[in-house]
Amino acid sequence: MTETKSYGTVLIKAKQILDYLMDQPAGQTLKEISDGLQSTKSTTLKVLATMCELNLLWRSENDKRYFLGSELIGYGQKALSEFDIKNIAVPYLQELRDETGETVHLGIHAGDFVVFLEKLESPRSVNLKSKVGGKLNLFSSAMGKAFLATMPDEQVTAYLERVALTALTTHTITDPSELQKQINQVRERHYSIDDRENEEEVFCVGAVLEKHNRVFGAFSVSTPDYRLDAKRKKAITAAVLKTKEMIERHL
């Protein structure tokens, strides 16, 4: 996506303050906020005072800590009611499709499955089984493993005890300990793979879309394995991580 030049230094500073407070477990003092943003106390105080006047923040008189304000609740509820991950993600996913020349999927986590929200066909697409509204297993798909990697360990354990890891191809992982190993790898490298596990001869690289500890969806690039070599696999993975970063920044 084309970057536009931001306008309004104070607005940018206010957004930085909101982002900083969002990521903290509790309210923060003026010094903590200015140190966290590497900004002067005088500048930070002016912005904080204005934000408090607008009820975007409030300050505790007991310990002089700043908290997110009640005015944000209405904005948040309105934003959630109108939010559609497709509206934000699809333009970036179209660029990913064009860059890689491969089919790109967008999905959400629903129960023990991934549900397809969007499918952006490659101009040289092979006949993939996927369709909008269709489902994938979490354990055998790149998007599914990306979702599993965001879950607490006890939730993953419950999933592995509840779901039979049935082989869909000769490459499907059916050993729970091996799947757990892959989930741990996804947490470390921030992308997942489906190496012909869901469909024979189809390789996928996926990533989850997450911000402020909330998971919005996941996406993946699917390619026939005969078009892959080490260099191309590396390029597709890099493109997936770049797209993940851009979408999450927009979120």
Automatic annotation (TrEMBL):
SMART domains: HTH_ICLR. Pfam families: HTH_IclR, IclR_C. Residues 8-70 form the HTH iclR-type domain. The keyword 4Fe-4S does not apply. The keyword Chloroplast does not apply. Residues 71-251 form the IclR-ED domain. GO terms for biological process: negative regulation of DNA-templated transcription. Keywords: DNA-binding, Transcription, Transcription regulation. GO terms for molecular function: DNA binding; DNA-binding transcription factor activity. PANTHER family: HELIX-TURN-HELIX TRANSCRIPTIONAL REGULATOR, ICLR FAMILY, HTH-TYPE TRANSCRIPTIONAL REPRESSOR ALLR. This is IclR family transcriptional regulator.
